Amino acid sequence: IKPGGFVGARSLDLAASADGSRRWAWVHLALCVAFYGAITAAWGRWGIYASLFASVVLADMVLHITNRITAGKGSRFARESGCALVVGGFLLGPLGAAYAAIEVFTPKETTLQLEKMKTCAARPLAAALAGPPWSTRPRIVMTGANIAGELMYRTPHGVVASPYRKGYVGLLDTLAFFGATDEKLARDLLDRRKVDLIAVCPAFGLEVAGNSFGPGTMYDRMIAGQAPAWMREIGLPADASAFRLFEVPAEGRSGR
Question: Could you tell me the pTM of the whole model?
């Protein structure tokens, strides 16, 4: 945000100057759009920063049009109404076009994936883990990074994976556990991480692996009802029934 805010503010400063440097403001904006546009093409989350510069161009267009309308002939009401229509059109037109494009061109597979994401919304699971018997002490939860953030925010528990740059080691350990076919390796990893609970949502799958890590993996065994004997499944409330919750009892773990 800081780089985008700086160059955006600098662009506005140049555009507002009266010493003939307006041309360089547009050059500056064009370079910013090109730079952030290239980054956005590789990583969609940068689109919000790229849009900052496009909004400057849009605002300048609106300003020019409304100035022309205001300076024209006709009653004050007519001129102000014209300005309102222009501003409203520029504000709602692109949004309406984007919404229509999404409705028309979004693949059915993407729509289905979004529905699965809603099914696996983590708040009901977080509510269950924030109450008894789990609220008596903090636990460590092994789950996907997409769910982990909600659990960290809404419960007293810790997580192994997290959707943050510095948590990549935990994410690697999480993927290693769910992808393990060797029970001893999986247990050793849980011991090292002091994991108490494991949560998955089969409808959405887990990270890049999707709905399956492969035959014989811990993830596939758990969702198929073939979890190891040292792990037991815990029932969840109806609103969190999309999830599967497993406990690793202290007596079933080494080093505990």
Answer: 0.61
